[in-house]
Specification:
Chain lengths: 173, 109
């Protein structure tokens, strides 16, 4: 059983405070980029907002696990490109069902075993399934996703598990 | 070059509008909550992608485009989360996913 790097608790000390600094830097960059204004009042409000957000994040236990588990890399981009293609394909399929003269539905509920994925990857998979029209994640618990599919074809595609393999491949080292 | 970008953005915006319309038709036409959510997700996935990409082409290389890209990213991250919450609430409320609604036109609840 391979343990995922995402489940390991964050190292204490240097790595820990680096995560805090990185988080604050991200917040400040976001504030400056979104506002584009450099008046002292607005910068002060920004600093205040970042401090409050950082305090809430600490209280939520955000730093107790590896924070930057979702690294931005080339494989993530490749996964997004594949997901975009799937969204287009399944949108056309659902549009065909919706616009057909006679409604022909064959909804299915299937279960997907996601036990080997890290918690973050399970969320990515559940959200990706929901994002593609025609499939909808109903519930997630104990490493299993309950998925509602509009058509039998969509249910088969989920059971086939291609999306699961691709999500797993994003963070394989 | 500008004309090409303009035409491309019009095409994207039109296609986006059509997908939002189809999503709306589906949300009204399909029989139960879960199938309606499938139709509505056309609106917030492909519809949002097409419309926002169309606007990005209009905005060109500017801060506005970065903001639009961020809006698209956060929309695509948060809208499935909201859908999951809705589906989970519906299940908790005892709304059973209708597995056998084959051709049930008047299966509305």
């Amino acid at each position: 059983m391979k343990t995922s790097p995402n489940q390991r608790p964050a190292p204490a000390g240097a790595g820990h405070s680096r995560a805090h600094l990185m988080f604050i830097a991200l917040l400040i960059a976001a504030w400056v980029l979104w506002s584009g204004m450099f008046k002292p009042l607005l910068l002060g409000l920004g600093a205040f907002s970042c401090a409050v957000a950082g305090y809430i994040a600490v209280r939520m236990g955000y730093f107790d696990t590896r924070v930057f588990a979702l690294r931005f890399n080339l494989r993530l981009l490749r996964f997004w490109a594949w997901l975009l293609k799937e969204i287009v394909k399944s949108s056309l399929e659902v549009a065909r069902v919706v616009l057909a003269r006679e409604l022909r539905l064959s909804t299915r509920v299937v279960e997907v075993d996601t036990g080997r994925l890290s918690p973050v990857d399970q969320v990515v998979l559940g959200n990706s399934i929901t994002l593609a029209p025609g499939t909808l994640t109903l519930a997630a618990s104990d490493g299993r996703l309950l998925v509602h599919a509009l058509t039998a074809d969509g249910a088969r595609a989920i059971e086939d598990g291609e999306m699961l393999r691709r999500v797993a491949a994003v963070h394989e080292d | 070059m500008n004309a090409v970008l303009d035409v491309a953005s019009w095409v994207l915006l039109t296609l986006g509008g059509i997908s939002v319309l189809i999503g709306g038709i589906g949300a009204l036409r399909l029989p139960d909550l879960f199938t309606r959510m499938h139709a509505a997700s056309i609106t917030d996935s492909i519809g949002a992608i097409l419309v926002l990409t169309g606007i990005m082409l209009q905005a060109g290389l500017s801060l506005a485009t970065i903001k639009l890209a961020a809006i698209l990213l956060f929309l695509l991250l948060t809208s499935p989360t909201a859908s999951n919450a809705l589906a989970a609430a519906a299940m908790l409320a005892g709304n059973k996913p209708g597995i056998d609604t084959t051709g049930g036109k008047d299966d509305a609840q």
